[in-house]
Write a structure and sequence with these properties.
globular; about 0% helix; 11 strands; 7-stranded mixed beta sheet
């Protein structure tokens, strides 16, 4: 069993930064990918970034590439999302997700076995 707990969300002005953390309890080698998703009001949940076991595979949505950085600390069972140059359109509930199998794609919500409860990010202009 895996439990994911996000933290680090908050309210910032455009251009500001936030660092999100996702702590995984019960972490094991069964987890192959960790990812960050976000969902804005009235919008579908979308993939933001993902990182694989051993950091072999790292991928970002084009909307955040160059601004966000995903990283992983296996010793602490934690994945991070450093968010710089935030824009109002980044406003959303951010979710941490994990899955126990590899796949050719990473952005499908249905592929993930475990989800955190989310942390709110609000960016004002």
């Amino acid at each position: 069993q895996v439990q994911l707990v996000e933290s680090g969300g908050g309210s910032v002005q455009a251009g500001g930064s936030l660092r999100l953390s996702c702590a995984a309890s019960g972490y094991s080698d069964n987890i192959k990918h960790l990812a960050w998703f976000r969902q804005a009001p009235g919008k579908e949940r979308e993939g933001v970034a993902t990182i694989s076991k051993g950091t072999v595979f790292v991928y970002y949505d084009n909307s955040v590439k160059g601004r966000f950085t995903i990283s992983r600390d296996s010793a602490k069972n934690t994945v991070y999302l450093q968010m710089n140059s935030l824009k109002p359109e980044d406003t959303a509930m951010y979710y941490c997700a994990a899955r126990t199998q590899y796949a050719d794609v990473w952005t499908n919500v249905g592929l993930y076995n475990y989800w955190g409860q989310g942390t709110q990010v609000t960016v004002s202009s």
